[in-house]
Design brief:
11% strand, 8-stranded mixed β-sheet, disordered C terminus, Rossmann fold, 2-enoyl-CoA Hydratase, Chain A, domain 1, 30 helices, alpha/beta, 6-stranded mixed β-sheet, N-(1-d-carboxylethyl)-l-norvaline Dehydrogenase, domain 2, single chain
Length: 737
């Protein structure tokens, strides 16, 4: 029998080698077709008496990335259709579909012949769960090899036996830590935890796996043996008596109870360890079905799994434009941002020229790359040779003539129109007509900057976030005259440096920064109302934000807030900024010299390490303070989420953001908007636009007109619409009202 996604070869030793190699895909993933074929392969190997055991491996550089997005999307579509037809049986149908992988893996585990998973590369999600169901696991030794059950990061949890097998192979505390954080394990760490049996050199992988079978590997899982005890003794031991009462409290501290998938992991492990294995699998299947039915799971999977992949693969790339090749990229401005952009460019294997006013300034920019490379080499992420190769791709120079053959030039100089105008003119004097010019600006409108260009159709905004080497989002901004070639080139570059792009139309602050400053401005309002600063920060984190607004303001610099406010007043008039906000920031900067983390004094104090930062005590003296009992924390949480979501709705109404996927992905990757919501527009859709409008109107009456719902929101509420319905990114139905 032949298979589309697998090959099977049986040697003279009676060991069948099953190799996973999906055609037309760079990575193996689980699809319905793959599971059908895997089921057939299992049947074939069981029925063939000549086969003594099976080695399962991959022909690709990675082992597998887990489930395919089309399968996940199909599962949700099935649930929606089944719920519409018969809500009573919808959950039962989902329960059956969700258990397909669970019971296929259990069939492998109990088939009577030994299976060994030979893991040659990164192994994630369902692929690792399949490997855990095999009787032996051998992993190739390599720094790029990672093993993980990361499902919690997209709103669900390891629901194909993962919670039960991990907690029976390693101690419960390590199992919970691994699964509730979705952390990746090196081969060595996985072996130390007892999750894999051997770590070998890549060339020996298959031979080592076969040898396990030849050495008499039992085709029985440890938990199917009589008298099996989980590592640590299960849940009724003195050690467990310390772990389990604390575990929910620790999880709540880390997640504020916002992630149903994370809590379900605790329940699955605690309940499952007290039950026979097959019953424990049914418990896991029950919780998995329950979590799949939550708004959080639907929204997170859509944004953080499906939409992120679609955007990363060029969902917004103009059709018909040839793919860009980057033989050289120029970066003008060797300050921290420009230097970091040069680093990620070189890390992608692209030669980059880093330009500044003189050689000393340019060399200082390259030193940023040298520092980052040294850190990577010291941590084993790069070899010395790889680091040297990366640095050889960065050429620091003050000579603009070196840009004459650049395919793309990125300007990353100071946020000043006149400075940028001078750079644009100098660059355009030497580059050919085919070169694309990109401005890395965080606030200045691209159309205005493009007025300084002789070729505005070749001019585009590419807004990076700091620190560039860590932040996964890049905003691509279209000026009024930006052409398809410029957009396509920008998106190709972002893909090459392995970041996720969102495309937005031009406006002051674009999308991300508009939302970020709404978040910070709401904190200013709360301070002025007398809400204690600690409550402001904690409420924001309880709402799901990764850092409080005051801490975030310190990171971006309080004096930058002052500059942006002054620029807004200069361009848009005094009503564009609340006087009390301006007064607060002026007091911090002009009177107290509290500029943020960069000078060790902002809303927080930053003592020398190892001491931790702490809120500046003087904040309570700026405004009369309310008692904590007078403040409703739930209302604070609502204010933070609603004000950001409202700003997103405004950008949609203004035509700045045209694809809801980009609003959601951009809000999570750009500034960490409560990931459990799926992003700003999913937050609105998740509660229902009508309910959101009602909440916004209530907040508007109590806390100000900036909470007033927009006309678009009111219209959508009246019509019972959603953002993903009205602005469907797949059919492009609808337009901004």
């Amino acid at each position: 029998m032949t298979y589309k996604n697998f090959t099977i070869e049986t040697g003279a030793d009676g060991i069948a080698l099953i190799t996973w190699d999906m055609p037309d895909k760079s990575m193996n993933v689980f699809t319905v077709e793959v599971m059908d074929e895997l089921e057939a392969l299992l049947k074939q190997t069981v029925e063939d008496a000549a086969i003594k055991g099976v080695v399962f491996t991959s022909a690709k550089s990675s082992f597998s990335g887990g489930a395919d997005l089309t399968m996940i999307r199909g599962m949700f579509s099935m649930l929606q259709e089944a719920t519409a037809k018969d809500p009573e049986t919808a959950k039962q149908k989902l329960f059956e579909v969700a258990g397909r992988m669970t019971w296929l893996f259990r069939a492998i585990e109990t088939n009577g012949k030994p299976w060994v998973s030979a893991i040659n590369g990164t192994c994630m999600g369902g692929a690792f769960e399949l490997s855990l169901a095999c009787h032996g696991r051998v992993v190739a030794n390599g720094k790029s090899v990672k093993l993980a059950l990361p499902e919690v990061k997209v709103g669900i949890f390891p629901g194909a036996g993962g919670t039960q097998r991990v907690s029976r192979l390693t101690d419960a505390q390590s199992a919970l830590q691994m699964m509730t954080t979705g952390q990746s394990l090196t081969p060595q760490r996985a072996k130390a935890m007892g999750l894999v049996d051997q770590v070998v050199e890549p060339a020996e992988l298959v031979n080592a796996a076969k040898q396990m079978i030849k050495d008499g590997l039992k085709p029985v899982a440890p938990w199917d043996e009589k008298g099996f005890k989980a590592p640590g003794g299960g849940v009724w031991t003195p050690a467990a008596a310390q772990l389990w009462p604390a575990a929910p409290a620790i999880l709540r501290r880390e997640t504020a109870g916002n992630y149903p998938g994370a809590l379900a992991i605790l329940k699955c492990v605690y309940e499952g360890l007290q039950l026979p294995f097959d019953t424990a699998l049914k418990v896991e299947q029950r919780y998995f079905t329950q979590v799949l039915g939550t708004t959080e799971a639907f929204s997170m999977i859509r944004s953080l799994f499906i939409s992120m992949q679609e955007l990363g693969k060029g969902a917004r790339r103009p059709a018909g434009v040839p793919k860009s090749e980057f033989k050289k990229v120029g970066v003008v401005g060797a300050g921290f941002m420009g230097a970091s952009i040069a680093y990620v460019t070189a890390a992608a294997g692209i030669p980059v020229v880093l330009i500044d006013r003189d050689q000393e300034a340019a060399d200082k920019g390259k030193a940023v790359s040298e520092k980052l490379v040294a850190e990577s080499v010291s941590k084993g992420r790069l070899t010395k040779e790889e680091g040297e190769k990366l640095l050889s791709l960065v050429t620091p120079t003050p000579d603009y003539a070196t840009l004459s053959d650049a395919d793309l030039v990125i300007e990353a100089v100071f946020e000043d129109r006149n400075v940028k105008k001078a750079v644009i003119e100098q660059v355009e004097a030497v580059i050919p007509a085919t070169t694309i010019f990109a401005s890395n600006t965080s606030t200045l409108p691209i159309s205005g900057l493009a007025e300084n260009s002789k070729r505005p159709e070749q001019f585009v905004g590419v807004h990076f976030f700091s620190p560039v080497e860590k932040m996964m989002l890049t905003e691509v901004i279209l000026g009024e005259k930006t052409g398809d070639k410029a957009l396509a080139t920008a998106l190709d570059f972002v893909a090459k440096i392995k970041k996720t792009p969102i495309v937005v139309n031009d406006t002051r602050g674009f999308f991300v920064n508009r939302c970020v400053f709404r978040y910070i401005n709401e904190a200013y309002d709360m301070l002025a109302e007398g809400v204690p600063a600690a409550m402001i920060e904690n409420a924001a984190k309880m709402a799901g934000m990764p850092v409080g607004p005051l801490s975030l303001n310190d990171e971006v610099a309080v004096d930058l807030s002052q500059k942006i406010m002054k620029a807004s007043i200069a361009d848009l008039g005094p009503n564009s900024v609340k006087p009390e906000h301006m007064a607060l920031v002026d007091q911090l900067i002009d009177v107290l010299d509290r500029r943020g983390r960069k000078n060790g004094r902002g809303f927080y104090d930053y003592p020398a390490k190892p001491a931790k930062k702490s809120l500046w005590p003087g904040l309570k003296d700026l405004y009369p303070q309310k008692k904590a009992s007078e403040v409703d924390v739930n209302v604070l949480k609502q204010r933070f989420l609603v004000t950001i979501a409202l700003e997103t709705a405004r950008t949609v109404e203004e035509g700045i953001v045209t694809d809801p996927r980009e609003a959601d992905v951009g809000s999570i990757l750009g500034f960490g908007f409560a990931p459990y919501t799926g992003g700003t527009l999913s937050y609105i859709d998740g509660m229902g636009v009508k309910a959101f409008v009602t909440l916004a109107e209530k907040l508007s009456r109590e806390y100000g007109d900036h909470f007033a719902p927009t006309s678009l929101l009111k219209d959508m509420a009246a019509k019972g619409e959603t953002f993903y319905g009205r602005f469907d990114p797949y059919t492009k139905v609808g337009a901004a009202a």
